[in-house]
Amino acid sequence: MKITVDFEECLKDSPRFRATIEEVEGDVCELESKLDKLVKLCIGMIDAGKAYNAANKQFVNGIRELAQQSTKDEVIESSLTKFAESLQEMINYHTVCYHSVFLFFFDSDLRKFKEAKKQFDKVSEEKEAALIKNAQAPRNKQHEVEEATNILTATRKCFRHIVLDYVLQINVLQSKRRSEILKSMLSFMYAHLTFFHQGYDLFSELQPLMKQLGGQLDQLVVDAAKEKRDMEQKHSTIQQKDFSNDDTKLEYNVDADNGIAMEGYLFKRASNAFKTWNRRWFSIQNNQLVYQKKFKDNPTVVVEDLRLCTVKHCEDIERRFCFEVVSPTKSCMMQADSEKLRQAWIKAVQNSIATAFRDKGDDGELDRKSSTSTGSLDSGGEPKERPLKGESALQKVLAIPGNACCCDCGQPDPRWASINLGITLCIQCSGIHRSLGVHFSKVRSLTLDTWEPELLKLMCELGNRVINQIYEARREELGARKPQPGDPRHEVEAYIKAKYVDRRFVRRPSDEELRNKVISLSKQEKRLSSSSEHLPPKPPPSTPRLRPGSNASGQTVIFISFNFSDAAEPAPMPATLPPPSPCKEMVFYEPKEYSSGLQLYWASFARSLPDMAEALAHGAEVNWVNTEDDKRTPLIMAVQGGSLVTCEFLLQNAANVNQQDAQGRGSLHHATMLGHTGQVCLFLKRGANQNAADIDEKTPLTIAVEAANADIVTLLRLAKMNEEMREAEGPYSQSGDETYQDIFQDFTLMASNDPDKLNRYQHYDPQRP
Q1: pLDDT score, position 754
Q2: Positive/negative CA dihedral, 676, 681, 683, 684
Q3: Angle at 732 between CA 728 and CA 738, to 5 degrees
Q4: Does domain 248-360 fall into CATH 1.10.10.10?
Q5: Is 281 helix (H, G, I), strand (E, B) or coil?
Q6: Taking the domain 7-236, which CATH number applies?
Q7: What is the DSSP letter of 246?
Q8: From 752's CA, which of 222, 264, 273, 507 has a CA 20 to 30 Å away?
Q9: CA-based angle 664:668:674, to the nearest 5?
Q10: Which residue blocks in 361-399 are alpha helix, DSSP H?
């Protein structure tokens, strides 16, 4: 609706003018409301178009990936690629179309109208006030009459100027509204016209290809039906065959196209101490006998040159259908599924030997190669323990004071924990902790995950109250608000990052405070030194006929025993050995500089987890090296202190289990020297290198043997046997032997839950049967 206002009428300021103004203002207000609604709908349509285009892009990418996967079929690959390109062009056209849809109506004219209205309303009120004042001026007071007259004259002059401007804005707005609206909508429609016209042109160019593919598709359907009939016929023919003598079909073929003269499944006996049997895919190829656990694995060579081996039946073991391939360096025991298959494999190996001699000749020097591989009991090969899970772990951890509520927001009944910090968390805070990265927080479920005994002890030694005293020491001083249950996630996340990543609320100690802390911890170390475990002395020389490890008949005797106890007192020594000599006492020297790393160093020996956590919060490097004390690390000092939980805390916070001191000794060396069996077990689980030698060329096993520590010797040898078993399984073996895993986990649980049972020292007894 177009409403114009007469300029002459506005000067009269008549009721008719006022009614027209009121009508215009209502119309403009309604117009503005509808335009705002239309702009919002337009923005919503643009957002929906962007989402549509994004989904289309993902669809096109899927088509491209399908085309790349079909590289062997040229028709499918080329067709899908062309279709993807065309659809991508349509997406580009659509994007251009929506970019041109932004509606920009006469906002500036509306703003000018509103400003003119404000001035008009103001001057109208002033004019009305001037008229009233002029009418009320008394006749006998000439100066008031003159003043009122002057004010009324000025006000009327200003009113005429303002009202004319206001009417001008009204008429301009009413004049432009039609053209502006039609202009915007026409631009919108032309954008769509261009989009559909481009799409039509694009698919018109694509139509010949689509017709061609339609014709090819008919032939493809016919070919697929024919292939289906042929396969059904072959299926029926094979199904009617007699498979009762299927094992006779395995034959030796030296001229096979793929170079594999013979292949099939056999059971192989491992060369480790447990002699486990595993089913593997064997083959004879390139004059070698190899096997695979999985098809993608690289073949493991059993015999590198068949000219050097012999094959024979094995009837002296309990299993049936066994045969043995013997080379100069090793032998391999295998088992077939039947007697016929055993004979076929033996014949195949014999024929391969003959073929190898015929092809290469046997008068030359034969290369004898041996391949060895070493491994470690790393995290990939850790034994699966049977620790606490579910309610048992939950009850133990929540029983610690302060742990019944989330450490960061106070949510009751938390079900998650950060194992390197030793705190409990609600589900929201646990998700935020996961996003920080494992170098800040390692999150584990208290009800869904299994909990090793060492970790449970670590959680019980720390807890929310201890950690908050460290990480929130200055929170109230800085006026920071602690989140509450139900607070927005972004607020909780900001607080957690400030607390653990930026460590904003940690109170930094002064130099004097740090010095007093370190000296206090060193005094604790001196009190502990009197009760630390000592290195057992070497056993006395044994007679040539009877020595530890063999009996009178020369048979090997192995007594498997472990001492996982974390007790400070040493295990009882056998009566046949002299008493232990005291270890060298550590003396505290005034350092050149006091640091948080030095605090962590002495706190690790003093077994004080709160002081260790405080040192890490103050920025201590977990692998800090004390250059003034033989380059020892906090982990080595934790070994000296004899606490399994202290070592676990450092390892959970990224301590290097293989870092060596100035003598070339790592944590495993020191644990072996001190006879700390539980720590030896822990370090092997965490990937300690048991083959590392110190500056005296001594490995942990060498030290344990010299100290006659049967517990640790047996533990290290079991780990070594597991390495040999993994070597026999092939280069891609990870888990190791299940029997070894069971033994390892049983003793690990006993070490943590009932160490007194293992607080013993086994030695060789000639009278023992």
Answers
A1: 60
A2: positive
A3: 60
A4: no
A5: strand
A6: 1.20.1270.60
A7: G
A8: 273
A9: 100
A10: 391-398
- Asked whether 470 and 617 are in contact (CB, 8 A), the reply is yes
SS in 3 state form for 217-232? HHHHHHHHHHHHHHHH
- What is the three-class DSSP state of 215? helix
Residues of the chain with CATH 1.10.220.150: 387-501
Residue 621 contacts residue 653 (beta carbons within 8 Å)? no
- State which H helix or E strand residue 292 sits in: strand 288-292
Give me the torsion for CA of 56, 62, 65, 71, rounded to 10°: -100
Give the residues of the chain that fall short of pLDDT 50.
1, 248, 361-386, 525-584, 731-735, 739, 758-769
Q: Give which of 712, 384, 357 is closest to 533, Cα–Cα.
A: 712
List every span in the chain annotated with CATH 1.25.40.20. Answer: 511-534+562-569+583-758
Quick one: DSSP state of residue 662? T
The Cα 39–Cα 104 span in angstroms is 8
CA 740 to each of CA 269, 297, 385, 655, 736: distance values in angstroms, whole numbers, following the listed order = 16, 24, 12, 27, 8
| 244, 254 contact by CB (below 8 A) | no
Q: Among candidates 366, 455, 476, 374, which has minimal Cα distance to 726?
A: 374
Helix (H, G, I), strand (E, B) or coil at 89: helix
370 in Cβ contact with 329 (< 8 Å) = yes
Cα–Cα distance for residue pair 576/688, rounded to 1 Å: 32
Cβ atoms 308, 368 nearer than 8 A: yes
Distance, first Cα to last Cα, the chain: 116
If phi over 0 gives left and psi between -120 and 50 gives alpha, with beta otherwise, what is residue 287?
A: left
| Topology of domain 511-534+562-569+583-758, CATH | 1.25.40
Rounded Cα distance, 53 and 652, in Å: 47
Give CATH 2.30.29.30 domain extents, the chain: 248-360
Query: Phi and psi dihedrals of 502, rounded to 5?
Result: -85, -20
CB within 8 Å of 83: residues ≥ 6 apart? 63, 206
Query: What is d(CA 307, CA 310) in angstroms, rounded to the nearest whole number?
Result: 8
Alpha-carbon distance of 189 to 648, in angstroms, equals 70
Judged by phi (left if over 0) then psi (alpha if -120 to 50, else beta), residue 117 lies in: alpha
Q: Exposed, middle or buried by CB within 10 Å (0-12, 13-18, 19+), for 169? A: buried
Contacts of 435 (CB under 8 A, 6+ apart): 493
Q: Taking the complete model, does pTM exceed 0.70, yes or no?
A: no
What pLDDT is attached to residue 367?
Answer: 39
For residue 131, give every residue at least 6 positions away whose Cβ sits within 8 Å of its Cβ, in sequence order, or none: 152
Question: Which SS3 state, helix, strand or coil, does residue 579 take?
Answer: coil
Q: Pick one of 3.30.750.24, 3.40.50.720, 1.10.220.150, 1.20.1440.230 as the CATH number of 387-501.
A: 1.10.220.150
Res 383: pLDDT: 37
Which pLDDT does position 385 carry in this prediction?
40
Q: How far is residue 175's CA from residue 182's CA, in Å, rounded to a whole number?
A: 13
State the pLDDT at residue 725: 61
Confidence (pLDDT) at 304: 79
CA 133 to chain centre: 83
d(CA 73, CA 68): 10
Phi, psi at 543, each rounded to 5°: -75, 155
